[in-house]
């Protein structure tokens, strides 16, 4: 296990939080973890590998359920322990596929029942997660009951197992917990390809001036410091609502850039899009995209500038080992080689 860099603490004013146990420099990994359970988002079931989350058009299908897809035999083998039990339920329900939250909760239930792995090493456990059931509107509760019915249909005859769940973790409260505590797993292009439950992460609070960023590589979540964090300082992430708003904005801009790929983009529009709290992973991804466009248009010096800026951010937000950082570094060398030749 990696060195522990943070601990859980309770402040009277704000409740649970995470704070640094030592000084953490910008670009350092604060925490890295695999999900307790995760699932691929419905929109990506046909195009994302259910193990490494890589996207591709020619993935091989699980011969049993014909729903799970994999990029390699190795990925299929690795995913089997998590897929084994759901496979027969998915097969029975074909061609219907339950929504993400139902598939995710089913996976959590299988894991809780098998007790092969617990979340005891986490700073926060699923039992402790807030469900907000008490202060939920009737409308929302009704929605949860619908999901619960779907879950029961999905699990069919093995429903009786549900009575073996740990106290307090009945299906309704698990569905409520997942709704409040799971994270979207985004890929390098900021597409939300999956959704996962990372037990310690709901402790992370939000701030408009965050000191860390959340980056995914496959389904592994990594928190990296974007500025110096002092011992005992609270570790804070950007506001979730704001960041999903930014992602919407980026999706829009991506669509625009693709549509007008042979047109010089409006500089003011781009400047606006690039204005994020610095260094921000979305900004780096956008710079990479802009750099590729400039490269494609033969504007090599501008492309070199964009790739250099993207690289400088990603060194901190993604780290030098991340696939996306390597891609930027490759594009940058390509540009430099072409500039040398011109
Ligand atoms: Zn894979
Ligand atoms: Zn299967
Ligand atoms: Zn929040």
Break the fold down into its secondary structure elements and pairings:
Blueprint: E1 6-11, E2 15-20, E3 29-33, E4 37-40, E5 60-61, E6 69-70, H1 73-93, H2 100-114, H3 138-155, H4 171-181, E7 183-186, E8 192-197, E9 205-206, E10 212-217, E11 220-225, E12 236-237, H5 240-259, H6 267-273, H7 281-296, H8 300-317, H9 323-341
Parallel strand pairs: 9-12
Antiparallel strand pairs: 1-2, 3-11, 4-8, 5-6, 7-8, 10-11
The structure holds zinc ion (3 copies).
The site of one zinc ion has 8 residues, from loops.
Describe the structure.
This is [histone H3]-lysine(4) N-trimethyltransferase. One of its GO terms (molecular function) is zinc ion binding. Pfam families: SET, zf-MYND. It comes from Sinocyclocheilus rhinocerous. Its EC number is 2.1.1.354. By secondary structure, this protein is an alpha+beta fold. It folds into three domains: 55 residues, Beta-clip-like, CATH 2.170.270; 148 residues, Annexin V, domain 1; 102 residues, Tetratricopeptide repeat domain (Serine Threonine Protein Phosphatase 5, Tetratricopeptide repeat, Alpha Horseshoe). It has nine helices and twelve strands. A three-stranded antiparallel sheet has the order 3-11-10, with no helix packed on it. Helix 1 packs across helix 2, helix 3 crosses helix 4 and helix 7 runs antiparallel to helix 8. 36% of the residues are buried. About 11% of the residues have low confidence. Bound molecules: zinc ion (3 copies). The site of one zinc ion has 7 residues, from helix 1. One zinc ion (ZN) binds next to helix 1.
């Amino acid at each position: 296990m990696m060195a522990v860099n943070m601990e859980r603490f309770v402040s009277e004013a704000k409740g649970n939080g995470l704070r640094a146990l030592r000084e953490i420099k910008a670009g350092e990994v604060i925490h890295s973890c695999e999900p307790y359970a995760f699932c691929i988002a419905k929109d990506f079931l046909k195009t994302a590998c259910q193990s490494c989350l890589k996207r591709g058009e020619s993935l091989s299908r699980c011969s049993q359920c014909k729903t799970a897809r994999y990029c390699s035999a190795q990925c299929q083998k690795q995913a089997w322990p998590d897929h084994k039990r759901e496979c027969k339920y998915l097969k029975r329900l074909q061609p219907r596929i339950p929504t993400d939250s139902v598939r995710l909760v089913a996976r959590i239930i299988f894991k809780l029942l098998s007790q092969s792995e617990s979340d005891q090493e986490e700073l926060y456990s699923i039992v402790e997660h807030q469900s907000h059931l008490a202060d939920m509107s009737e409308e929302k509760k009704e929605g949860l009951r619908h999901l619960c019915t779907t879950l029961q249909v999905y699990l069919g005859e093995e429903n009786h197992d549900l009575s073996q769940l740990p106290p307090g973790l009945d299906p309704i409260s698990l569905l409520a917990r997942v709704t409040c505590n799971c994270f979207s797993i985004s890929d390098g292009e900021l597409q939300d390809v999956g959704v996962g439950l990372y037990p310690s992460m709901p402790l992370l609070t939000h701030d408009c001036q965050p000191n860390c960023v959340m980056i995914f590589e496959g389904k592994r979540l990594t928190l990296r410091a974007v500025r110096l964090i002092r011992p005992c300082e609270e570790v804070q992430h950007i506001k979730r609502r704001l960041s999903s708003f930014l992602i919407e904005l980026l999706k829009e801009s991506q669509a625009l850039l693709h549509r007008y790929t042979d047109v010089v983009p409006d500089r003011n529009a781009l400047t606006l899009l690039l204005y994020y709290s610095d260094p921000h992973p979305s900004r780096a991804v956008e710079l990479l995209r802009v750099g590729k466009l400039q490269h494609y248009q033969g504007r090599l010096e501008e492309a070199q500038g964009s790739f250099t800026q993207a690289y400088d951010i990603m060194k901190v937000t993604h780290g030098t080992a991340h696939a996306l950082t390597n891609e930027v570094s490759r594009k940058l060398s390509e540009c430099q080689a072409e500039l040398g030749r011109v």
